């Protein structure tokens, strides 16, 4: 398969353009000009290629595009946006799935191109549970799993009960659209029994959207010992569930409140200072 370094070709043309137009534009203007030039380059005929970058990839089948991506990565040839855009324009998810078991580069490109497609959610869940996966990879997987959380609800509950990636499982459960007492009880239990992570668990209740959590959130926010950060997250969760908390609170001795307040301006509404 013939590979072309279209980004390298563009860099050469850009260098010439910058040399000819030196001093004509501010740095902030170049931030808009360069992407526009790159987009235009995608439709520029290149004699050595016999086509434009976009035209070159448009002639390939779905399988050839995915193979080109893998070959670029294996041979160290830069992958252009033109190739990625061509793949994204096709229905190539099933062809991309095997790359999730490939090299780090193949996996990263595959995740970006597949996104939250339902066909990949099961594989993302496996990667989430893989002890060899980095935290960055797990976070990326969870971000996409959350968009289709109901597909793996039972697996999330099962792994939560086994204490496997517990916080990730809670985050996934909190994004489920199908309501269940089982999930609500789990999220509420964590909120009530894990004071060290109160803001996070309050956010899970807010995301889940079950109004039954309001009374527990209102009870907690009314406690004198909560911190300013906890207050903020609890108030957000209450309002997200359609509730309201208007009692004035004094956080003038709270270190985080003082840090933000020192930045200037009273941005805290009904908080006493």
Describe the model:
The chain is mostly helical and 273 residues long. It has helices spanning 6-20, 27-41, 53-58, 62-75, 81-88, 93-96, 104-114, 118-129, 135-145, 153-161, 166-174, 181-193, 198-208, 214-221, 228-240, 255-261, and strands at residues 249-250, 271-272. The chain is built from 16 helices and two strands. Helix 16 links the parallel strand 1 (249-250) and strand 2 (271-272). It is extended. The relative contact order is 0.05.
Keywords:
273 residues; mainly alpha; two-stranded parallel ribbon; 61% helix
Order of helices and strands: HHHHHHHHHHHHHHHEHE
Determine the fraction of residues in helical runs and give it as a percent range.
Answer: 55-70%
What fraction of the residues are assigned to beta strands by DSSP? under 5%
Number of H/I helices: 16
Low-confidence stretches: 264-270
How would you characterize the largest beta sheet?
A: 2 strands, parallel
Query: Average pLDDT value?
Result: 93
Tell me the span between the first and last alpha carbons.
Answer: 68 Å
Overall spatial form = extended
Q: Return Rg in Å.
A: 25 Å
Structural class: mainly alpha
Q: Using DSSP, what is the number of strands?
A: 2
* Widest sheet: strand ordering: 1-2
Question: Strands, helices and their partners?
Answer:
Layout: H1 6-20, H2 27-41, H3 53-58, H4 62-75, H5 81-88, H6 93-96, H7 104-114, H8 118-129, H9 135-145, H10 153-161, H11 166-174, H12 181-193, H13 198-208, H14 214-221, H15 228-240, E1 249-250, H16 255-261, E2 271-272
Parallel strand pairs: 1-2
Helix pairs in contact: 4-5, 8-9, 10-11, 11-13, 12-13, 13-15, 14-15
